[in-house]
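step=predict obj=ATP-binding domain-containing protein n=721
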Amino acid sequence: MPVAESRPETHPDFELEREHLSQTVSAMIRQIEFWEDRDRQMGADLETSIILGDQAEEFAAMLSPHVHQPFFGSLKVRVAGREQTLYVGKHGFRDVKGPYSVVSWDSEVGSLFYSDALGWTPRKGSAGVIKRRRQLDVHSKKLLRVTDLYDDEHGGDTGGREEVLLRRLQEDSTAGMRDVVETLQPEQNAAMRAPAGTPVIIQGAAGSGKTTIGFHRLTWMTNPDRGVHRARPEACMVLMPNRVLAAYAARILPELGIERVVVTTPETWATGLLGLEKLEVTDRTLSLLLTDRDNTRRALAWRKAKLLGDARMLDVVRTHLWGKFNAGLAGQSIRESIEVRGREPVVLHFPETELAAMLRDVFAADPLAGYRAGMRRAIESEALSRLNVPEGEEVGVLRQLSAPLTTFLGRVFASTTPITEARRLLGSADALAASGLLTDREIQLLLTDPLSGIPTPRRANADVTEIPVMLAVQAFTGGIGRLDGRTLEPFDHVVLDEAQDYSPLLYALLGRATRPGHITALGDLNQGMHGYKGPSSWEAVQAQLPGAQVLTLGRTYRSTRQITELGARIAATYNRAAAVQGVDRDGADVQRYTAPANSPHGELPLIAQAVKDAQAAGHKNIAIVTRRGVDADRLAEALREFDTDAQPITTQEHRFRGGLVILPVNLAKGLEFSAAIVASANAQTYDESTEYERRLLYVSASRALHWLGLVSAGDLHPLIA
């Protein structure tokens, strides 16, 4: 059936919808004015009146931004024989004096707008039937378009959902992430609303919307409807692969109605937890992979990095610490005279055998706060119980016990800092062998140094491949999680972007640091640029997150058909995930720019021409993607001679603010642009025989929404020629 006409002059309900919009805006403004009038927020006394007035002002501030667009859709439903129309928006609103209410997109009813289901059974009340779904394009309090997505009276599915989607996708890119609340597709909606309290792994190709869906899921998790699984925004964390993306992503969360969420990188979070914020984090394995031509050395570095991130390392660390702490406990005891008010002093004695039994119990309990804090609590609890201390005297007894207990703990847990202990373990064949989990060959691999030719910073540093082992030491000794004042607690919910780049060991540690079932991982196995520290399959992640579901987004929405087909051709050479279907959105042909390999200016004039062509096609946010950071710096300077001024983004400190930029593929990953130009798109730059290089080429070629240019001095890469 043809799509219902969406032009204002032809849709039969346009005037009715415009009037409803006008009345809803008026109702919202009346409510805001009521809340802002402190004289009408009166309580029984002055203090109550002030509290009521402050709350009302907060409500007004939350609702005010949504007056310009109260809703974006509607549902006509039949419940218990009665029909009614519900309007869906980004913020719920109840008109206490009229029918102009709005349900929030993240509510149970709001979900019905996105799904294909035609009926539902609410938690309370009678079952209902969907009679019509309708998209309403509203901007600045003005109705622009009405599109029916489903209409029971006119044949059911109208095809309108695809029409609205294509209209949105044809829009230009911005310097922020797309707001997809209005156009969530059924499969995206289902992934976003996967059961609360269940770990979720969302596998999606470039442009499938997985990162944005993860953010919307976090918003959904903060809704009161989640009950015991509801997440507090300030107790949530989002981990992004680099600071460029972290800054880029942090802007969208307040727009979704949640603030104070920690948005950071795994390295920044880890060094903060270790108390080593000034520690310089390197990725020497990546440097080797990007620069070294020795395949044997590259393979060795890859295998060692994979082994460092193996989940077995958690028990290797645990066994090492068990041996170390038991050795530290040898010959130790606690003997202290304790006074309890109204009693004679009592000598409290803990011999070595009792302390060893307590340590064994602490290891078995595996407390979130770590073994040192767990041992302190165990001894304190036993002391209070043994002395039968009245509740009012507990503080005084613990104060007397504090000094000898601190001295004892210092002896047992001495010199166990995460960096030194991790490196002590990784440098000792005997320590690595103690658990019996590693083979002799694996132990020898961990003792080798394939990165010896890669320089290290002069100041204190740690490599990203070492950090999970260091975090494991921290987790067992000092604890892992979210610091609330001086208290360590689990995060309410954690979202991981580029989840294919997190090692199984890091997943195990994040599982400890977060409430059970409250991790959302977003990734694409086809885009594993850092596979040396990531899982080989999602099954390896599921082994660390019990009960985790893998949900696959089967469509990619970012690019035109021409760009999507090119990306699929590259990914087909190593694809380990499900086949991806693109949206059938036609666009410009992929543009190819080549010149003889010995051209005097190389590919510089070709890149400059590609930029001009993209700009002539109307694109403003344009990226020139290079293989390495040094290439981006070099090209940015050289292109000025060809009247092309591109802002270089070569470190994580740079921020993407739109316009013409030039950046390496590792920083472009996760970003999207109206147009993208792949520099040096040839087999000399992206080695055809190496899977890792083909992955990089795929990422480079999948950044563009509408227009893609491929540039090479010499022949283009065989996969894209």
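step=describe
Residues 14-36 form the longest helix (23 residues).
step=end
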